Amino acid sequence: VTRREAGLRIDAPRLLARLAQLGAVGADAHGGRTRLALSAEDQAARDLVASWLREAGADVRVDAIGNLYGVLDGAQAGPPIMTGSHIDTVRRAGAYDGCYGVVAGIEVLDALRRRGRPRRAVAVAAFTNEEGVRFAPDLLGSRVVAGHIPLEEALALEADDGARVGDELRRIGYAGTLAPTAFLPAAFVELHIEQGPVLDAEGVAVGVVEAVQGHAWWRIAIEGTANHAGTTPMTLRRDAGAAAMGLAGRLVERARADGVPQVATVGTLSLEPNAINVVPGRAVFTVDLRDPRDAMLERAEALLQEGLRDVERQGFRVAAERISHHAAVTFDPALCALIESGARELQLSSRRMNSGASHDAQMLAARCPTAMIFVPSLRGISHNPKEHTEPAALAQGAELLAHTLLRLVDGGSHGIAGL
Ligand code: GLV
Ligand code: MN
Ligand code: MN
Question: Which ligand has an atom closest to residue 384 CA?
Fold first, then answer.
């Protein structure tokens, strides 16, 4: 089958133009954008995506956790074939993380509609709060769909600024009425930039993602005593900042010493009262631990607990909370094989790989056959304004998504269980 015979032409210039347009929402003067979940910027991005979905002929629906769906009915009844990702961002993000999968999904839906009514329904999803920067846990919308967290608990989550998920959803006009399980798909394929260096380094066009590593997020508060930096002898102070930085340093060093694949990151650290001449009385920091081996992730968490007990023994008060967790996930082998054969048919080089980043697909995997497609990230840079994927590579990934979805909507099972 040649690309032409496949019959699904992606409007690549429009895909790129829309990525730029979406990337401008929440943009700053330094090339980045910040579109934290359920912010005014997220609202503007959602409005834009909803308008594109309508333009593509989709029926736009919102569920009770704010997941935004565009649905194209199929000739036969039954759950949709779904694609999608997220449009919320980290702070000072690039333009492609998440947005690529949503915008490309809309192009594919549009191409499918122009081709005639598909056998199976098709849906494009933009899931709520994938990033987890403002509200933890991350992957929130898809987590609710997967039944990993109850809806009520998700709606009650609070940000550092005191805002609640449920209130914020109402404020931005995306508190839907649909049950989050109303759209359990028959299969889910997420297209995403790799966010790592492998495909770019090897010059491979697409990654067929077989697995996602597990992660554990912790928020830790250490309480000491604020005091004068000049007068308090080193032996008589309870410096919460020094305790936090010492523990953080040991965690990161241990991951480094253990070698790949475990990674440990302390991405936030705040000291109170945050003044040059005051011994910190309180330190709050976060820890992001990831490992594809569940037992090793557990071990890393146990070592963290041990470190916290040491800090307590030194006279500090410690409060630690695990704010997100998910075990490693393996994707559907038959769906991976379908994507791989699609890449061959489109004459795109491919390789199997694991994902270091978390994705909504890992949640959907609990509910239906799921897999992911990666395209290269220039030098592996992501969660950074400099995140870049070549336009041609973006178009190729979208073509492979179209090719894959075209097969999935045709009514056949393609060896995929339950399809
Ligand atoms: C999401 O980007 C994550 O992996 O934290
Ligand atoms: Mn993402
Ligand atoms: Mn991300």
Answer: 3
**How far is it, in rounded angstroms, from Cα 229 to Cα 226?**
9
Name 118's Cβ contacts closer than 8 Å, sequence gap at least 6.
72, 74, 75, 112, 409, 410
* Residue located via tokens 């995997």: 365
Phi, psi of 148 (to 5 degrees): -80, -25
Tokens describing residue 208: 């067929």
Q: Kindly provide the b/e burial profile for residues 145-178, where b requires at least 16 CB atoms within 10 angstroms of the residue's own CB.
A: bbebbebeebbebebeeebbbbebbeebebbbee
In the chain the first and final C-alpha atoms are separated, in Å, by 23
pLDDT of 255-280, one tens digit each?
Answer: 999 888 999 999 999 999 999 999 99
Supply 193's token pair: 């930039």
Alpha-carbon distances of 380 from 105, 202, 301, rounded to whole Å? 23, 12, 27
Instruction: Round to whole Å and give the CA distance between 218 and 297.
Output: 13
Residues with CB under 6 A from ligand 1: 131, 138, 357-358
Cβ 156 vs Cβ 165: under 8 Å: yes
363 touches 148 (CB < 8 A): yes
Q: How close is the Cα of 232 to the center of ligand 3, in Å?
A: 43
Which pLDDT score, from 0 to 100, does residue 258 have? 82
Which ligand 1 atom minimizes the distance to the CA of 357?
Answer: 4
Global pTM value:
0.96
